[in-house]
């Protein structure tokens, strides 16, 4: 009996070895041809910064969303490439004499009446004010931009048709060129934003960049073309309003024509 079981076991082992020898080796297996199509941003065009020595200040005293020592270091470097001097305002705004360009990035702290008066007078005398914001910072920025004809709206913009990776990253594709914007929109074909709001723009301000007509507001359901960038001339100075801050972060500035837009801002301002 034991001999019979032993023989059966040996036969089974022999059969197993024969079957195993007939199996294809690992290198004989064919990996399935899996192809994933991912749309990637086109390579940005050549970025040429015009040499123009100016004093550029970034407001850090009102708790901006991003700093030139962090996510906005690349954006700030474009001003350095123009041979401009870069400085920061680390407290309240007390004096803007000698400042040619002031950049405010989605502040978290409100401005006092004295600070708003200093800003207003500096712009009228020739300073350029660049405001970058979104829904969260709209109330604070509107106190600075109200007299220019530009208001940041308390909403989000999204697009279910024209977007980058996610519908809250709408691709912008309509650009306005006029005497005020000069070359602000030069060479732009499409730029991408993230969690942007829209703007209300009335004279004397002018809308510069719009969403596509497939965009929607978080406050409505209809597809509509929305302004997201605007400019205004105030006295001898000017104001540029952009209702998105992520557009020029270090990780997004290279997407599509975002870097070209940043270059245009440096040259225009």
Summarize the structure.
This protein is α/β, with parallel strands linked by helices and 269 residues long.
Description:
With 269 residues, this protein is an alpha/beta fold. It has one domain (55-268): Class I glutamine amidotransferase (GATase) domain (Rossmann fold). 23% of the residues lie in helices and 25% in strands. The chain has 5 helices and 14 strands. The strands form 3 sheets. Strands 1, 2, 3, 4, 7, 8, 9, 11, 13 and 14 form a 10-stranded mixed β-sheet that branches. Strand 7 (163-164) and strand 8 (166-175) form a beta hairpin. It is globular and about 95 Å long. The termini are far apart.
Outline the low-pLDDT stretches.
22-40
CATH C-level name: Alpha Beta
Cα distance spanning the termini = 99 Å
Outline the biggest β-sheet.
Answer: 10 strands, mixed
- Would you tell me which CATH topology applies? Rossmann fold
- How many domains, in number, for the residues? 1
Q: Which structural class is indicated by helix and strand composition?
A: alpha/beta
Mean pLDDT: 84
How many distinct helices? 5
Question: What percent strand?
Answer: 15-25%
Order of helices and strands: HEHEEHEHEEEEEEEEEEH
The CATH architecture assignment turns out to be 3-Layer(aba) Sandwich
Q: Count all strands and give the number.
A: 14
